[in-house]
Amino acid sequence: ETETSVKGNNGVIIMRTVSTPSPALILPPRSSPGVLNGSSTSSSTFGTETIAMVHTPPTSLTHPQRSLRQPRDQQGAPIDILPDHAFLQIFTHLPTNQLCRCARVCRRWYNLAWDPRLWRTIRLMGDVLHVDRALRVLTRRLCQDTPNVCLTLETVVVSGCRRLTDRGLYTVAQCCPELRRLEVAGCYNVSNEAVFEVVSRCPNLEHLDVSGCSKVTCISLTRDVSVKLSPLHGQQISIRYLDMTDCFALEDEGLHTIAAHCTQLTHLYLRRCVRLTDEGLRFLVIYCPSVRELSVSDCRFISDFGLREIAKLEGRLRYLSIAHCGRITDVGVRYIAKYCNRLRYLNARGCEGLTDHGIEHLAKNCLKLKSLDIGKCPLVSDAGLEQLALNSFNLKRLSLKSCESITGRGLQVVAANCFDLQLLNVQDCDMPLEALRFVKRHCKRCVIEHTNPAFF
Protein backbone atom coordinates (compact mmCIF):
# COMPACT_ATOMS: atom_id res chain seq x y z
CA GLU A 1 0.00 0.00 0.00
CA THR A 2 1.08 3.61 -0.67
CA GLU A 3 0.01 6.92 0.79
CA THR A 4 -1.08 9.63 -1.64
CA SER A 5 -1.84 13.25 -0.88
CA VAL A 6 -4.94 14.76 -2.46
CA LYS A 7 -6.03 18.38 -2.31
CA GLY A 8 -9.69 18.69 -1.34
CA ASN A 9 -12.19 21.37 -2.40
CA ASN A 10 -11.49 23.42 0.73
CA GLY A 11 -7.76 23.42 0.11
CA VAL A 12 -6.95 20.95 2.87
CA ILE A 13 -4.37 18.29 2.10
CA ILE A 14 -5.82 14.80 2.66
CA MET A 15 -3.65 11.70 3.04
CA ARG A 16 -5.23 8.69 1.36
CA THR A 17 -4.06 5.08 1.37
CA VAL A 18 -4.26 3.36 -2.00
CA SER A 19 -3.88 -0.37 -2.44
CA THR A 20 -1.30 -1.79 -4.79
CA PRO A 21 -2.60 -2.09 -8.36
CA SER A 22 -3.71 -5.57 -9.42
CA PRO A 23 -4.95 -7.12 -12.64
CA ALA A 24 -8.64 -7.12 -13.46
CA LEU A 25 -10.85 -8.58 -16.12
CA ILE A 26 -11.86 -5.87 -18.56
CA LEU A 27 -13.56 -6.23 -21.88
CA PRO A 28 -12.90 -3.09 -23.96
CA PRO A 29 -15.31 -1.50 -26.50
CA ARG A 30 -16.28 -2.78 -29.97
CA SER A 31 -17.55 -6.14 -28.88
CA SER A 32 -17.99 -9.43 -30.64
CA PRO A 33 -21.24 -11.31 -30.12
CA GLY A 34 -20.17 -12.68 -26.73
CA VAL A 35 -22.26 -12.03 -23.66
CA LEU A 36 -20.92 -11.57 -20.16
CA ASN A 37 -23.25 -11.91 -17.19
CA GLY A 38 -26.43 -11.63 -19.20
CA SER A 39 -25.57 -8.42 -21.06
CA SER A 40 -23.70 -7.47 -24.22
CA THR A 41 -19.97 -7.32 -23.66
CA SER A 42 -17.10 -5.67 -25.38
CA SER A 43 -14.02 -7.66 -26.19
CA SER A 44 -10.60 -7.57 -27.72
CA THR A 45 -10.53 -10.18 -30.47
CA PHE A 46 -7.81 -11.88 -32.43
CA GLY A 47 -9.66 -13.74 -35.19
CA THR A 48 -12.72 -15.05 -33.38
CA GLU A 49 -11.11 -15.46 -29.98
CA THR A 50 -12.20 -13.26 -27.10
CA ILE A 51 -9.59 -12.88 -24.40
CA ALA A 52 -9.46 -11.39 -20.92
CA MET A 53 -7.49 -8.15 -20.79
CA VAL A 54 -5.15 -7.52 -17.88
CA HIS A 55 -4.72 -3.89 -16.96
CA THR A 56 -3.42 -1.65 -14.23
CA PRO A 57 -5.60 0.76 -12.24
CA PRO A 58 -6.41 4.18 -13.71
CA THR A 59 -3.86 6.91 -13.04
CA SER A 60 -6.56 9.39 -11.94
CA LEU A 61 -6.67 9.46 -8.15
CA THR A 62 -10.02 10.99 -7.39
CA HIS A 63 -12.15 11.90 -10.38
CA PRO A 64 -13.12 10.54 -13.78
CA GLN A 65 -11.76 12.41 -16.79
CA ARG A 66 -12.48 16.14 -16.44
CA SER A 67 -13.55 18.50 -19.15
CA LEU A 68 -10.79 21.03 -19.90
CA ARG A 69 -13.35 23.74 -20.76
CA GLN A 70 -14.85 23.92 -17.27
CA PRO A 71 -13.51 26.35 -14.66
CA ARG A 72 -11.20 24.71 -12.13
CA ASP A 73 -13.70 25.10 -9.26
CA GLN A 74 -16.40 23.29 -11.29
CA GLN A 75 -14.37 20.33 -12.53
CA GLY A 76 -15.53 17.90 -9.82
CA ALA A 77 -18.32 15.61 -11.02
CA PRO A 78 -21.49 15.68 -8.83
CA ILE A 79 -21.32 11.92 -8.41
CA ASP A 80 -18.04 12.29 -6.51
CA ILE A 81 -19.99 13.75 -3.60
CA LEU A 82 -21.52 10.32 -2.86
CA PRO A 83 -19.95 8.48 0.07
CA ASP A 84 -18.32 5.10 -0.40
CA HIS A 85 -21.23 3.13 1.02
CA ALA A 86 -23.57 4.67 -1.58
CA PHE A 87 -21.24 3.62 -4.39
CA LEU A 88 -21.08 0.11 -2.99
CA GLN A 89 -24.86 -0.08 -2.92
CA ILE A 90 -25.01 0.95 -6.59
CA PHE A 91 -22.26 -1.47 -7.58
CA THR A 92 -24.13 -4.40 -6.04
CA HIS A 93 -26.65 -4.14 -8.91
CA LEU A 94 -24.02 -4.33 -11.69
CA PRO A 95 -23.16 -7.49 -13.63
CA THR A 96 -19.62 -8.81 -13.63
CA ASN A 97 -18.49 -7.15 -16.85
CA GLN A 98 -19.89 -3.74 -15.88
CA LEU A 99 -18.25 -3.94 -12.48
CA CYS A 100 -14.91 -4.57 -14.17
CA ARG A 101 -15.47 -1.55 -16.41
CA CYS A 102 -16.19 0.63 -13.43
CA ALA A 103 -12.78 -0.29 -12.07
CA ARG A 104 -11.24 1.64 -15.01
CA VAL A 105 -12.92 4.96 -14.27
CA CYS A 106 -10.65 6.24 -11.53
CA ARG A 107 -8.55 5.06 -8.62
CA ARG A 108 -11.38 5.48 -6.11
CA TRP A 109 -13.78 3.44 -8.25
CA TYR A 110 -11.08 0.84 -8.75
CA ASN A 111 -10.75 0.27 -5.01
CA LEU A 112 -14.52 0.26 -4.50
CA ALA A 113 -15.22 -2.06 -7.44
CA TRP A 114 -12.91 -4.69 -5.97
CA ASP A 115 -14.46 -4.56 -2.53
CA PRO A 116 -14.81 -8.23 -1.47
CA ARG A 117 -18.47 -7.68 -0.55
CA LEU A 118 -19.27 -7.16 -4.24
CA TRP A 119 -17.74 -10.43 -5.33
CA ARG A 120 -20.02 -13.11 -3.99
CA THR A 121 -21.04 -13.96 -7.56
CA ILE A 122 -19.29 -14.29 -10.92
CA ARG A 123 -21.43 -14.61 -14.07
CA LEU A 124 -19.75 -15.18 -17.42
CA MET A 125 -21.70 -16.07 -20.56
CA GLY A 126 -20.92 -16.30 -24.25
CA ASP A 127 -19.71 -18.73 -26.88
CA VAL A 128 -16.50 -16.90 -27.77
CA LEU A 129 -15.42 -15.81 -24.30
CA HIS A 130 -12.11 -17.30 -23.20
CA VAL A 131 -13.72 -18.32 -19.93
CA ASP A 132 -10.80 -20.33 -18.53
CA ARG A 133 -8.58 -17.28 -18.66
CA ALA A 134 -11.34 -15.03 -17.33
CA LEU A 135 -11.84 -17.25 -14.29
CA ARG A 136 -8.10 -17.39 -13.67
CA VAL A 137 -7.72 -13.59 -13.83
CA LEU A 138 -10.75 -12.92 -11.63
CA THR A 139 -9.91 -15.46 -8.95
CA ARG A 140 -6.29 -14.28 -8.88
CA ARG A 141 -7.46 -10.74 -8.21
CA LEU A 142 -9.99 -11.86 -5.58
CA CYS A 143 -7.30 -13.90 -3.83
CA GLN A 144 -5.03 -10.89 -3.47
CA ASP A 145 -5.74 -10.29 0.21
CA THR A 146 -6.00 -13.99 1.11
CA PRO A 147 -3.33 -15.76 -0.98
CA ASN A 148 -4.63 -18.65 -3.10
CA VAL A 149 -8.04 -18.62 -1.40
CA CYS A 150 -11.14 -16.55 -2.14
CA LEU A 151 -13.39 -16.69 0.91
CA THR A 152 -16.15 -14.43 -0.44
CA LEU A 153 -17.08 -16.10 -3.74
CA GLU A 154 -20.21 -18.25 -3.33
CA THR A 155 -21.71 -18.41 -6.84
CA VAL A 156 -20.14 -19.08 -10.23
CA VAL A 157 -22.37 -19.09 -13.33
CA VAL A 158 -20.67 -19.87 -16.65
CA SER A 159 -23.65 -21.39 -18.46
CA GLY A 160 -23.35 -21.38 -22.24
CA CYS A 161 -19.59 -20.83 -22.21
CA ARG A 162 -18.78 -23.66 -24.57
CA ARG A 163 -15.06 -22.94 -24.33
CA LEU A 164 -15.01 -23.78 -20.64
CA THR A 165 -12.76 -26.76 -19.99
CA ASP A 166 -11.68 -28.75 -16.96
CA ARG A 167 -8.89 -26.23 -16.48
CA GLY A 168 -11.40 -23.48 -15.65
CA LEU A 169 -13.20 -25.67 -13.10
CA TYR A 170 -9.87 -26.66 -11.54
CA THR A 171 -9.25 -22.97 -10.94
CA VAL A 172 -12.61 -22.59 -9.20
CA ALA A 173 -12.09 -25.73 -7.13
CA GLN A 174 -8.66 -24.68 -5.92
CA CYS A 175 -9.48 -21.05 -5.11
CA CYS A 176 -13.11 -21.04 -3.95
CA PRO A 177 -13.64 -23.37 -0.96
CA GLU A 178 -16.79 -21.47 0.08
CA LEU A 179 -18.57 -22.07 -3.24
CA ARG A 180 -22.27 -22.83 -2.81
CA ARG A 181 -23.64 -22.61 -6.35
CA LEU A 182 -22.11 -23.68 -9.67
CA GLU A 183 -23.85 -23.54 -13.06
CA VAL A 184 -22.03 -24.88 -16.12
CA ALA A 185 -25.06 -25.68 -18.30
CA GLY A 186 -24.13 -26.34 -21.93
CA CYS A 187 -20.39 -26.60 -21.25
CA TYR A 188 -19.91 -29.90 -23.03
CA ASN A 189 -16.11 -29.97 -22.57
CA VAL A 190 -16.42 -30.47 -18.81
CA SER A 191 -15.67 -34.01 -17.60
CA ASN A 192 -16.15 -36.13 -14.49
CA GLU A 193 -12.64 -35.28 -13.27
CA ALA A 194 -13.35 -31.55 -13.05
CA VAL A 195 -16.67 -32.12 -11.30
CA PHE A 196 -14.93 -34.41 -8.83
CA GLU A 197 -12.43 -31.66 -8.01
CA VAL A 198 -15.21 -29.16 -7.34
CA VAL A 199 -17.37 -31.34 -5.11
CA SER A 200 -14.39 -32.67 -3.16
CA ARG A 201 -12.81 -29.25 -2.56
CA CYS A 202 -16.02 -27.25 -2.04
CA PRO A 203 -17.81 -28.93 0.89
CA ASN A 204 -20.56 -26.29 1.03
CA LEU A 205 -21.71 -26.75 -2.59
CA GLU A 206 -25.51 -27.03 -2.59
CA HIS A 207 -26.60 -26.15 -6.15
CA LEU A 208 -25.01 -27.82 -9.19
CA ASP A 209 -26.25 -27.44 -12.77
CA VAL A 210 -24.37 -29.61 -15.30
CA SER A 211 -27.23 -29.85 -17.81
CA GLY A 212 -25.97 -30.39 -21.32
CA CYS A 213 -22.56 -31.60 -20.11
CA SER A 214 -22.61 -34.83 -22.08
CA LYS A 215 -19.29 -36.07 -20.63
CA VAL A 216 -20.53 -35.95 -17.04
CA THR A 217 -21.79 -39.34 -15.91
CA CYS A 218 -21.18 -39.22 -12.16
CA ILE A 219 -21.08 -36.91 -9.12
CA SER A 220 -19.07 -38.45 -6.29
CA LEU A 221 -16.26 -38.10 -3.76
CA THR A 222 -14.32 -40.91 -5.40
CA ARG A 223 -12.59 -40.89 -8.75
CA ASP A 224 -13.71 -44.45 -9.42
CA VAL A 225 -17.26 -44.26 -10.78
CA SER A 226 -17.92 -47.88 -9.85
CA VAL A 227 -17.42 -47.18 -6.13
CA LYS A 228 -20.91 -46.72 -4.67
CA LEU A 229 -20.12 -45.91 -1.05
CA SER A 230 -17.71 -43.20 -0.03
CA PRO A 231 -14.56 -44.48 1.68
CA LEU A 232 -14.12 -41.12 3.39
CA HIS A 233 -15.61 -42.20 6.72
CA GLY A 234 -19.16 -41.62 5.62
CA GLN A 235 -18.54 -38.09 4.31
CA GLN A 236 -21.29 -36.97 1.91
CA ILE A 237 -21.73 -34.27 -0.67
CA SER A 238 -24.01 -31.47 0.52
CA ILE A 239 -25.67 -30.92 -2.89
CA ARG A 240 -29.43 -30.41 -2.64
CA TYR A 241 -30.17 -29.20 -6.18
CA LEU A 242 -28.78 -31.21 -9.11
CA ASP A 243 -29.70 -30.68 -12.76
CA MET A 244 -28.34 -33.32 -15.16
CA THR A 245 -30.70 -32.62 -18.03
CA ASP A 246 -29.30 -33.85 -21.37
CA CYS A 247 -26.48 -35.79 -19.73
CA PHE A 248 -27.07 -38.51 -22.30
CA ALA A 249 -24.33 -40.83 -21.04
CA LEU A 250 -25.76 -41.12 -17.52
CA GLU A 251 -26.70 -44.71 -16.71
CA ASP A 252 -28.12 -46.57 -13.71
CA GLU A 253 -24.59 -47.19 -12.45
CA GLY A 254 -23.85 -43.48 -12.37
CA LEU A 255 -27.19 -42.64 -10.74
CA HIS A 256 -26.50 -45.27 -8.09
CA THR A 257 -23.19 -43.58 -7.26
CA ILE A 258 -24.74 -40.11 -7.28
CA ALA A 259 -27.53 -41.18 -4.93
CA ALA A 260 -25.08 -42.88 -2.54
CA HIS A 261 -22.95 -39.72 -2.26
CA CYS A 262 -25.62 -37.00 -2.51
CA THR A 263 -28.07 -38.21 0.10
CA GLN A 264 -29.37 -34.70 0.84
CA LEU A 265 -30.86 -34.21 -2.64
CA THR A 266 -34.22 -32.43 -2.71
CA HIS A 267 -34.33 -31.33 -6.37
CA LEU A 268 -33.19 -33.68 -9.14
CA TYR A 269 -33.74 -33.17 -12.87
CA LEU A 270 -32.86 -36.04 -15.23
CA ARG A 271 -34.63 -34.88 -18.40
CA ARG A 272 -33.58 -36.77 -21.52
CA CYS A 273 -31.17 -39.04 -19.66
CA VAL A 274 -32.26 -41.69 -22.09
CA ARG A 275 -30.23 -44.60 -20.69
CA LEU A 276 -31.84 -44.59 -17.26
CA THR A 277 -34.20 -47.41 -16.30
CA ASP A 278 -36.46 -48.28 -13.36
CA GLU A 279 -33.45 -49.82 -11.58
CA GLY A 280 -31.77 -46.42 -11.30
CA LEU A 281 -34.88 -44.94 -9.67
CA ARG A 282 -34.84 -47.74 -7.10
CA PHE A 283 -31.34 -46.70 -5.99
CA LEU A 284 -32.39 -43.06 -5.91
CA VAL A 285 -35.29 -43.67 -3.53
CA ILE A 286 -33.14 -45.85 -1.24
CA TYR A 287 -30.43 -43.23 -0.69
CA CYS A 288 -32.31 -39.96 -1.23
CA PRO A 289 -35.59 -40.09 0.68
CA SER A 290 -35.91 -36.28 0.85
CA VAL A 291 -36.45 -35.66 -2.87
CA ARG A 292 -39.22 -33.09 -3.36
CA GLU A 293 -38.87 -32.37 -7.09
CA LEU A 294 -38.04 -35.01 -9.68
CA SER A 295 -38.06 -34.98 -13.46
CA VAL A 296 -37.50 -38.06 -15.61
CA SER A 297 -39.23 -36.67 -18.68
CA ASP A 298 -38.23 -38.20 -22.02
CA CYS A 299 -36.60 -41.18 -20.28
CA ARG A 300 -38.15 -43.77 -22.52
CA PHE A 301 -37.21 -46.81 -20.40
CA ILE A 302 -39.04 -45.58 -17.28
CA SER A 303 -42.23 -47.57 -16.73
CA ASP A 304 -44.91 -48.21 -14.10
CA PHE A 305 -42.32 -50.12 -12.03
CA GLY A 306 -40.27 -46.92 -11.82
CA LEU A 307 -43.31 -44.96 -10.63
CA ARG A 308 -43.90 -47.60 -7.98
CA GLU A 309 -40.41 -46.84 -6.65
CA ILE A 310 -40.96 -43.07 -6.85
CA ALA A 311 -44.21 -43.48 -4.90
CA LYS A 312 -42.10 -44.57 -1.91
CA LEU A 313 -41.15 -40.90 -1.49
CA GLU A 314 -44.75 -40.51 -0.31
CA GLY A 315 -45.84 -37.13 1.03
CA ARG A 316 -42.44 -35.52 0.49
CA LEU A 317 -42.84 -35.43 -3.29
CA ARG A 318 -44.25 -32.12 -4.58
CA TYR A 319 -43.16 -31.97 -8.24
CA LEU A 320 -43.03 -34.82 -10.75
CA SER A 321 -42.43 -34.77 -14.49
CA ILE A 322 -42.89 -38.00 -16.47
CA ALA A 323 -43.56 -36.34 -19.81
CA HIS A 324 -43.16 -38.55 -22.89
CA CYS A 325 -42.46 -41.68 -20.85
CA GLY A 326 -44.38 -43.94 -23.21
CA ARG A 327 -44.32 -47.01 -20.96
CA ILE A 328 -46.31 -45.35 -18.17
CA THR A 329 -50.00 -46.21 -17.79
CA ASP A 330 -52.81 -45.78 -15.26
CA VAL A 331 -51.14 -48.39 -13.03
CA GLY A 332 -48.10 -46.22 -12.37
CA VAL A 333 -50.15 -43.04 -11.94
CA ARG A 334 -52.33 -44.90 -9.43
CA TYR A 335 -49.26 -45.59 -7.27
CA ILE A 336 -48.35 -41.89 -7.32
CA ALA A 337 -51.91 -40.81 -6.53
CA LYS A 338 -52.23 -43.23 -3.63
CA TYR A 339 -48.97 -42.51 -1.80
CA CYS A 340 -47.89 -39.01 -2.94
CA ASN A 341 -51.05 -37.23 -1.90
CA ARG A 342 -49.30 -33.90 -1.34
CA LEU A 343 -48.28 -33.60 -4.97
CA ARG A 344 -48.59 -30.05 -6.36
CA TYR A 345 -47.32 -30.43 -9.93
CA LEU A 346 -47.58 -33.30 -12.41
CA ASN A 347 -46.44 -33.27 -16.01
CA ALA A 348 -47.69 -36.37 -17.83
CA ARG A 349 -47.67 -34.88 -21.33
CA GLY A 350 -47.35 -37.51 -24.02
CA CYS A 351 -48.08 -40.47 -21.72
CA GLU A 352 -50.39 -42.09 -24.22
CA GLY A 353 -51.27 -44.98 -21.90
CA LEU A 354 -52.96 -42.61 -19.42
CA THR A 355 -56.78 -42.76 -19.42
CA ASP A 356 -59.72 -41.32 -17.50
CA HIS A 357 -59.22 -43.92 -14.76
CA GLY A 358 -55.74 -42.60 -14.00
CA ILE A 359 -57.04 -39.02 -13.93
CA GLU A 360 -59.82 -40.09 -11.56
CA HIS A 361 -57.36 -41.62 -9.08
CA LEU A 362 -55.22 -38.53 -9.31
CA ALA A 363 -58.13 -36.14 -8.75
CA LYS A 364 -59.55 -38.03 -5.76
CA ASN A 365 -56.25 -38.44 -3.91
CA CYS A 366 -54.07 -35.43 -4.80
CA LEU A 367 -56.43 -32.73 -3.57
CA LYS A 368 -53.66 -30.10 -3.42
CA LEU A 369 -52.77 -30.44 -7.08
CA LYS A 370 -52.15 -27.00 -8.61
CA SER A 371 -50.64 -27.73 -12.02
CA LEU A 372 -51.43 -30.59 -14.38
CA ASP A 373 -50.22 -31.22 -17.93
CA ILE A 374 -51.97 -34.09 -19.72
CA GLY A 375 -51.47 -32.82 -23.25
CA LYS A 376 -51.16 -35.38 -26.04
CA CYS A 377 -52.97 -38.03 -23.97
CA PRO A 378 -55.52 -39.22 -26.55
CA LEU A 379 -57.36 -41.54 -24.13
CA VAL A 380 -58.29 -38.75 -21.67
CA SER A 381 -61.83 -37.55 -22.34
CA ASP A 382 -64.52 -35.35 -20.79
CA ALA A 383 -65.19 -38.03 -18.14
CA GLY A 384 -61.68 -37.56 -16.76
CA LEU A 385 -62.06 -33.78 -16.78
CA GLU A 386 -65.31 -34.05 -14.82
CA GLN A 387 -63.57 -36.02 -12.06
CA LEU A 388 -60.77 -33.47 -12.08
CA ALA A 389 -63.18 -30.56 -11.84
CA LEU A 390 -65.18 -32.09 -8.97
CA ASN A 391 -62.12 -32.71 -6.78
CA SER A 392 -59.23 -30.41 -7.76
CA PHE A 393 -60.52 -27.05 -6.56
CA ASN A 394 -56.96 -25.70 -6.13
CA LEU A 395 -56.06 -26.23 -9.78
CA LYS A 396 -54.40 -23.16 -11.30
CA ARG A 397 -52.71 -24.45 -14.47
CA LEU A 398 -54.11 -27.06 -16.85
CA SER A 399 -52.75 -28.12 -20.22
CA LEU A 400 -54.93 -30.16 -22.57
CA LYS A 401 -52.93 -29.46 -25.70
CA SER A 402 -53.65 -31.90 -28.53
CA CYS A 403 -56.11 -33.96 -26.46
CA GLU A 404 -58.30 -35.36 -29.23
CA SER A 405 -61.08 -36.70 -27.00
CA ILE A 406 -61.77 -33.45 -25.11
CA THR A 407 -64.85 -31.44 -26.11
CA GLY A 408 -66.41 -28.19 -25.02
CA ARG A 409 -68.59 -29.96 -22.44
CA GLY A 410 -65.60 -31.13 -20.41
CA LEU A 411 -64.04 -27.70 -20.63
CA GLN A 412 -67.17 -26.03 -19.29
CA VAL A 413 -67.29 -28.40 -16.31
CA VAL A 414 -63.72 -27.44 -15.42
CA ALA A 415 -64.43 -23.74 -15.72
CA ALA A 416 -67.57 -24.00 -13.59
CA ASN A 417 -65.70 -25.59 -10.68
CA CYS A 418 -62.08 -24.43 -10.83
CA PHE A 419 -62.53 -20.70 -10.25
CA ASP A 420 -58.83 -20.10 -9.50
CA LEU A 421 -57.69 -21.33 -12.90
CA GLN A 422 -54.98 -19.00 -14.21
CA LEU A 423 -53.69 -20.79 -17.31
CA LEU A 424 -55.52 -23.10 -19.70
CA ASN A 425 -53.88 -24.56 -22.80
CA VAL A 426 -56.28 -25.99 -25.38
CA GLN A 427 -54.10 -25.55 -28.45
CA ASP A 428 -54.78 -28.01 -31.26
CA CYS A 429 -58.08 -29.02 -29.62
CA ASP A 430 -61.34 -28.74 -31.51
CA MET A 431 -62.98 -26.34 -29.07
CA PRO A 432 -66.17 -24.44 -29.96
CA LEU A 433 -66.18 -20.72 -29.50
CA GLU A 434 -68.96 -20.92 -26.90
CA ALA A 435 -66.84 -23.12 -24.61
CA LEU A 436 -63.92 -20.69 -24.69
CA ARG A 437 -66.24 -17.77 -23.89
CA PHE A 438 -67.72 -19.78 -21.02
CA VAL A 439 -64.24 -20.26 -19.55
CA LYS A 440 -63.54 -16.56 -19.90
CA ARG A 441 -66.72 -15.61 -18.04
CA HIS A 442 -66.21 -17.98 -15.12
CA CYS A 443 -62.41 -17.75 -14.74
CA LYS A 444 -61.74 -14.04 -14.92
CA ARG A 445 -57.98 -14.27 -14.40
CA CYS A 446 -57.42 -17.22 -16.71
CA VAL A 447 -55.09 -16.90 -19.69
CA ILE A 448 -56.34 -19.18 -22.48
CA GLU A 449 -53.84 -20.52 -25.01
CA HIS A 450 -55.80 -21.66 -28.05
CA THR A 451 -55.75 -21.97 -31.83
CA ASN A 452 -59.28 -20.71 -32.56
CA PRO A 453 -58.89 -17.58 -34.72
CA ALA A 454 -62.41 -16.42 -33.89
CA PHE A 455 -61.67 -16.12 -30.16
CA PHE A 456 -59.65 -13.21 -28.83
UniProtKB/TrEMBL annotation:
Keywords: Cytoplasm, Cytoskeleton, Leucine-rich repeat, Repeat, Ubl conjugation pathway. One of its GO terms (cellular component) is SCF ubiquitin ligase complex. Its main location: cytoplasm. The keyword Repeat applies. It is found in: Cytoplasm, Cytoskeleton, Microtubule organizing center, Centrosome. It holds the Pfam family F-box-like. Pathway: Protein modification; protein ubiquitination. InterPro entries: F-box-like_dom_sf, F-box_dom, FBXL15_LRR, Leu-rich_rpt_Cys-con_subtyp, LRR_dom_sf. Residues 76-122 form the F-box domain. It comes from the Eukaryota. Residues 24-44, 56-75 are annotated as: Disordered. Residues 32-44 have a biased composition (Low complexity). GO terms for biological process: SCF-dependent proteasomal ubiquitin-dependent protein catabolic process. SMART domains: FBOX (SM00256), LRR_CC (SM00367). Residues 57-68 have a biased composition (Polar residues). Belongs to the FBXL7 family. This is F-box/LRR-repeat protein 7. It comes from Sinocyclocheilus rhinocerous.
